[in-house]
Amino acid sequence: MDLLKLALDWAKSEVFSTRFFIFFALGFLISSIGFWQLGKTDLARAYIIPTLVAGILLLIIGGGLNYTNIQRVKQFETHFNTDPQDFQQSEIKRTEGTLKEYTIVFKVIPILIMLAAGLMLLTNSPTSRAISITTVAMLTVILLIDGTAYSRMESYHKKLTTIILQK
Q1: 149-156 contacts: CB < 8 A, separation 24 or more?
Q2: 1: pLDDT confidence band, cut at 50, 70 and 90?
Q3: 21 lies in which domain range?
């Protein structure tokens, strides 16, 4: 039963973590409304659409991940009770694949941040600056949340493989 508890604890922490995407999405959406209602300068008005888009994207990411992880929590116990060995093997394969995906994310997102920062340096229009700054902010949020998720996934994967070695 230690394996099931480990998996459920991990999945519940993921559900909690993905809600931070939604939290930051709401921040971007509120910022968009604020720029819309209070923005007096061209630069402030230029932030309305980029922060709205960033908020919607983070909301979609957070909502999708939250739903997926809630479904996973429901399936863990059924899968474990059906075939504990298969459950463990499938979790090890899944975590290995996810860790590889995170490795790609941690290479791509910094490159995208650099491109957005470069765009900010190369252009002088308020719209380009607002898009660049909002993109950097959104990608930084994704990087922070994914960084903690990667750390949890790595720890979970190590514990899964340790349980195999103990048997």
Answers
A1: 149/14, 149/17, 149/102, 150/99, 150/102, 150/106, 152/10, 152/13, 152/14, 152/17, 153/10, 153/95, 153/98, 153/99, 153/102, 154/99, 156/6, 156/7, 156/10, 156/95
A2: very low
A3: 3-165
